[in-house]
Amino acid sequence: MHRVRVWDLPIRLFHWALVSAVALSYYTMKLGGAPFVFPVEIHARAGLVVLGLLLFRWGWALAGSHHARVWHFLHGPRAMRDYLRALWRGALPPYAGHNPLGGLAVMVMLLSLSVQAISGLFLSDDVFFQAPLYDQVSTATSDALRTLHHWNGQLLLVLIGLHLLALLIHRLKGERLVGAMIHGRKRLDATPLDAPGETVTRDAGRPWRATGLLLVAVGVVAWLWRL
């Protein structure tokens, strides 16, 4: 049994903050939003939080820890093919971070969430609410972004459903992905195929990078919040 450290604290905090913000955003638009008096306003604020979290995550995908970096969880066509073949045979190849299929799903999810958060900055309900950057585009552009926002929101629901299904399948196969995202460690029966190896050392500068990225994200959200 191999117990490996996978997810650093910034990734875990990002993940659960994102889950909370997306859930609040969905609740205020799709499920009535009680007891909020103006659910659309809460929806917009939650969207700004999502945008800030995504700004941090894209930065952490370039400068974060080993398994958080985009080039470590995006795999080539051969790795994807081998992983799918192994799944077809009923095996679950050991990956500490995202497996080839999961890494692709994460990228699609991050892109879809980014489209949703950015498009929401240019919308209006034509009654009570105007997003921070609504006045910066034409009415036709805002209407097109509203359509994009709607259909991408439907895509997000599908992606979230597939994500939950994947969590269930992995749990049935003995891999506790939710627990790993809480305490940061994963138990594997074999050496993970994506192990960093001896050449990868602990980067002492990462806390400062995380702080810098967080300050940038907070600054952008604060500016948009005040518009």
Automatic annotation (TrEMBL):
Domain Cytochrome b561 bacterial/Ni-hydrogenase as annotated: residue spans: 6-184
Lipid bilayer topology: Multi-pass membrane protein
Keywords, alphabetical: Cell membrane, Membrane, Transmembrane, Transmembrane helix
Localization per Swiss-Prot or TrEMBL: Cell membrane
UniProt KW Membrane keyword: yes
SUPFAM superfamilies assigned: Transmembrane di-heme cytochromes
Bilayer-crossing regions: 12-30, 42-60, 101-123, 151-169, 208-225
InterPro entries referenced in this protein's UniProt entry, alphabetically: Cyt_b561_bac/Ni-Hgenase (IPR011577), Di-haem_cyt_TM (IPR016174), Hydrogenase_cytochrome (IPR051542)
PANTHER family to which the protein is assigned, alphabetical: BLL0597 PROTEIN, NI/FE-HYDROGENASE 1 B-TYPE CYTOCHROME SUBUNIT
Protein name: Cytochrome b/b6 domain-containing protein
